[in-house]
Amino acid sequence: MASMEQRIIRALNPDLSADDCALVEHGGQGYLYTTDGMAEGSHFRLDWSTPEDIAHKLMGINLSDLMAGGGEPEFCLLNVGLPDEPNSTPIEEFIGRFGHRFRSLMKEYRCELVGGDTFRCSQFLFSLTLSGPALFPRMRRAMDGDELYISGPVGLSRKGYDLLTSAGRPDWLDLEDSLPKTVASETLELEGQQPEPLRGSQASRETDTDEVARQAFRKHLRPWPNLEAVRSLNILQAHHFPVHGSMDLSDGLF
Prior knowledge:
Blueprint: H1 4-12, E1 22-26, E2 29-39, H2 51-68, E3 75-83, H3 91-108, E4 112-121, E5 125-133, H4 156-167, E6 174-175, E7 188-189, H5 200-221, H6 227-238
Parallel strand pairs: 3-4
Antiparallel strand pairs: 1-2, 2-5, 3-5, 6-7
């Protein structure tokens, strides 16, 4: 049975073959277009996410679709819905922090904001559209006989969501305030007094558990595409290796 999303897409355009990213020809040059939105209460909660987290996630979920399709970001459009009443953080301060981080991310990936819209709504709403040249297009869907590969673990974002749902954002959680030049550079740190060191197997078990929690929080609050895997696919295609399609799992759904 088709999902609600699939039924909506068919109702709007029965001939649409892909929904994450679209490949359009402009004067002989292929361009990729992708868009994703984030609504307060559905994609993020203000008691979990900082303005910086939201900027990271909004850019990350769009960048992942574009780069999975073999493109590089060039232009973007940003729509922002603002609530009538301020929450715990004044709206101007909130947008100021969001905007500072968003500009840093655009600079990092050489992407230019060329337009958008602001409007009033009941809660915060952010929507981003990215476009850029399709340097290594890989838009074909899987077919019989294709080999499938996955580039990393699946399930950390859901684990982070479950931890946040059960206990909220822990006081010790501090996502490193740096640009995501690599996925590994965006780590979690503990603040304040450190506990006494444990010994033996207990220390090993608790250290492993803490590390999984750190990764899970980061994957859910600040998901980011596996750029190393994307660039490896680009190299393979440059050497005529048959990479027909790819998609991301970095948008906080898994």
